[in-house]
Task: inverse folding
């Protein structure tokens, strides 16, 4: 499993969609299988972009990351990854 992890957080859903579209292209190109982000907007958009491909089974996970100094709402990590449908 090849993961890409980034810590960027966007202010708007539109910015997140543009970013997620580029991540989806990396997954379509099979350079990565999954993405880890603290931004729920990126995870949301990426999940829907990937779900439009019938060859993928899209998986998501939300986990709590305890870090000193972070607010609770900033302590979540979102993972989105794909496995391939067997035909």
Result:
């Amino acid at each position: 499993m090849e993961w890409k992890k980034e810590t960027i957080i966007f202010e708007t859903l539109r910015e997140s969609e543009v970013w997620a579209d580029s991540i989806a292209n990396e997954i379509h190109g099979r350079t990565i299988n999954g993405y880890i982000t603290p931004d729920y907007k990126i995870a949301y958009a990426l999940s829907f972009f990937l779900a439009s491909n019938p060859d993928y089974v899209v998986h998501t996970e939300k986990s709590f990351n305890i870090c000193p100094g972070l607010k609770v709402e900033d302590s979540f990590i979102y993972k989105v990854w794909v496995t391939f449908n067997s035909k």
In short: The mean pLDDT is 90. The longest strand covers residues 56-64.
